[in-house]
Amino acid sequence: MVRIVKNPEERRTELIETAESLFFQKGYEYTAVSDIVKKINVGQGTFYHYFKSKEDILEAVAEKIVAPIAEDVRNIAKGNEDSATKVNSILNSILKAGNSETGFMKLMHQKGNYLLHDKLEEALKAKISPIIAEVISKGMDEGFFNMSYPKESFILLLSSTLYLSHHFTWDHEARERMCAALEEITARVLGVKDYRFHLEI
């Protein structure tokens, strides 16, 4: 089969998308570099021209998955809503992205994707933490929030919410009660008194 010559950026994107697809199908641990290059009919030399290792392309896959989520969070932060509403929208945006049929939560908790789980969490926190910090800082200035460790508190809140949302296996009533508890915890963590959070889990 004749190999098609592509421009560098297009080829790099193709490698990342192929790796992502295989990580979904087989898991990161069970995907070899040879699987990636065979899928798009290029040599391993082409792979190593763009990536130093399989872990290197893993980081690129994590950044690709997180990029649209971070962009959505950025757009919410730029809106005209009050700070509490922005935080509510940001949490729901992340939960929605993670819990879709092909969402990152499914990929994170898939067998063979333990390292990808860590990379996705790192990328997500790195990309959205500065945005969240700005929203919360403004909210504290406006009197919406009252907390001593805003950045750290939100990271813990986000991690807990993502974990619990993925492990909801209760019936409808129990699920609603857990969701209500998470909303209450969110308000307490942020020190909000006059706002009711609505998490879509």
From TrEMBL:
Residues in the DNA-binding region are: 32-51
Q: Which residues form a coiled coil?
A: none
Which PROSITE patterns does the record cross-reference, listed alphabetically? HTH_TETR_2
Q: Name one GO molecular function term.
A: DNA binding
Which InterPro entries does its entry note?
A: Homeodomain-like_sf, HTH-type_Tx_Regulator, HTH_TetR, TetR/AcrR_C
Keyword DNA-binding present in the record's keywords: the answer is yes
- The HTH tetR-type domain is annotated at 9-69
Judging by the UniProt lineage, the source's domain of life is Archaea
UniProt keyword annotations, A-Z: DNA-binding
- PANTHER family xrefs: ACREF/ENVCD OPERON REPRESSOR-RELATED, ACREF_ENVCD OPERON REPRESSOR-RELATED
Designated name of the protein: HTH tetR-type domain-containing protein
Q: What is the lineage of its organism?
A: Archaea, Methanobacteriati, Methanobacteriota, Stenosarchaea group, Methanomicrobia
